[in-house]
Amino acid sequence: MRRFYVFVCSVCNLGVEFARRVEMGWVDVVHLALFNMTVFRAEKYHHIDEHIVYFINCNWASLQLPPKVRIRFLNHD
């Protein structure tokens, strides 16, 4: 199972809690998009450009992806 955050409690970290977002690769982004689309659209299959790319673009901020990557992603042709 893939984790998107690392958390260490104050007891384990000797006083200070630690939470950090783990950088996602494209496989993780697409997997997360497919999961969300399957849950909210209740469809089994999704078209790459019409559904997956559209979902990722619409939810870019929620996925917490860096702006530099978006420029490359939008110019994928």
Explain this structure to me?
This protein has 77 residues and is mostly helical. The chain has one domain (5-69). It is built from four helices and two strands, in the order ββαααα. A two-stranded antiparallel sheet has the order 1-2. The chain is elongated and about 50 Å long.
Spell out the blueprint of helices and strands.
Elements: E1 5-8, E2 18-21, H1 26-41, H2 48-58, H3 60-63, H4 67-74
Antiparallel strand pairs: 1-2
Helix pairs in contact: 1-2
Strand/helix succession? EEHHHH
Counting DSSP H or I runs of 4 or more residues, the number of helices is 4
Detail the poorly predicted runs: none
| Overall shape | elongated
Attribute tags:
77 residues, mainly alpha, two-stranded antiparallel ribbon, 4 helices, 10% strand, elongated
Brief digest:
With 77 residues, this protein is mainly alpha-helical.
